[in-house]
Amino acid sequence: MTVFKTFLKVLNKAKAPIIMYTVFLIFFARFNMQTSDNSTNFVATKPDVLIINQDKEEGITKNLVDYISKNSNIIEIEESQDAIDDALFYRDVNYIIYIPNNYRQDFLAGKKPEIKIKSTGDYGSSLTEMMLERYIKVANIYQEDITLEEELINRINDTLEKETQVEITSKLDTTQLSKASFYYNFANYSILAGCVYVICLILSSFKEEKIAKRTIISSMNYKTHNRKLLLSNSLFAIILWGIYVILSFVLVGNIMFTMHGLVYIMNSFVFTMCALTLAFLIGNLVTNKNAINGIINVVALGSSFLCGAFVPMEWLPDSVLNIAHILPSYYYIKNNELLKGIEEINIETMNEIIINIGIILLFVIGFAIITNIISKKKRRIG
Q1: What does the pLDDT read at residue 42?
Q2: Band (307; pLDDT cuts 50, 70, 90)
Q3: Strand 95-99's sheet: what is its strand order?
Q4: Among the four residues 36, 223, 236, 242, which has the most C-beta atoms within 10 Å?
Q5: Which helix (H) or strand (E) holds 7?
Q6: Strand pairing of 95-99 and 73-74?
């Protein structure tokens, strides 16, 4: 009971940083979620096209112009080379189509006349190029078998008007899952920083000369003292994890009540145990309280940047991710990223996630073994 009371006193002194890490988590998670909400709306736009028709606007030529006009914004500018070049340079048009003289007669004669183009090379120009190529391809196919121009135009139009019906069968809520992934990714920093700061502070406090001497002369043996200290710190880590889980239900929403949410929670619990053992290891190595803030910057901030807690993994260079493989945070964050792309939770889809959790547990065992070895050596030296 004495150990636990001392633990609570030290923990009370460390409450300000814990609150700060939690505020960071709430602020950045909320900011990202609002950004995601604003960026999910898609507005379809038509490309801006300039058609320079050197042929008579009738028959197949008129039909081509009508098709392009229907699927784009036709821009009218002065037909001079300078004006055309300026329009492309300033992005007033995305695509310029040059229909050559006698295009209609040459096409109907099977000569397949060339239509020249100029483009800005952006998305709008690519879309127009697809439309133009589709029209020409369909028209060339029908021209080989149909001699009557009116029938040819009707067949072309009937084919181009056909649209494929797309049925979305996936029920995956990617927006909510992305929010959950970002929240738990950023929690990597908050969990690591909180555990390392508090546990290192507590262990260093118990190693102070006055407290250490009182512990030695007390009736409590060393193993009992360490066990109670370990249980007290484990209780803190679990409470900290529980607070962050509750916050995820508030900030992320209904997705946390699904199987995906349960896996996010399980993954974060295993990582919290890893952070706990890592903090114990660091606490046994470091006795200087002034060094704790520097350690947090190296451990919590460093692993968060390297492993994709702040910057998405897909944006990080391969060289950085290769280095990140030696850190437990990589496998924790990797699981969060995998979860947002899984439609149904089952053994098959969870295979890689289970492997990553197993790797995190190996880190837990490794940190615990190293801590015991260091503790035994220090006990012998003492």
Answers
A1: 45
A2: very high
A3: 73-74, 48-53, 95-99, 116-119
A4: 236
A5: helix 2-13
A6: unpaired
| Dist CA 338 CA 10 (whole Å) | 39
Q: Tokens 């004495």 belong to which residue?
A: 2
Taking CA 289 as the corner, what is the angle to CA 287 and CA 292, rounded to the nearest 5 degrees?
100
The candidate with the shortest Cα–Cα distance to 273, out of 227, 307, 236, 323, is 236
Q: Indicate the length of the chain as a whole number.
A: 382
Nearest to 235 by CA among 1, 6, 8, 2: 8
- Residue 173 token pair: 């809520």
DSSP summary character for residue 208: S
Chain-centre distance for alpha carbon 282: 30
Residues 183-226: pLDDT tens digits?
999 999 999 999 988 888 888 777 665 555 555 545 555 566 66
- Whole-model pTM: value is 0.65
Average pLDDT, the chain: 84
* 111: helix, strand or coil: coil
Mean pLDDT of 115-144: 88
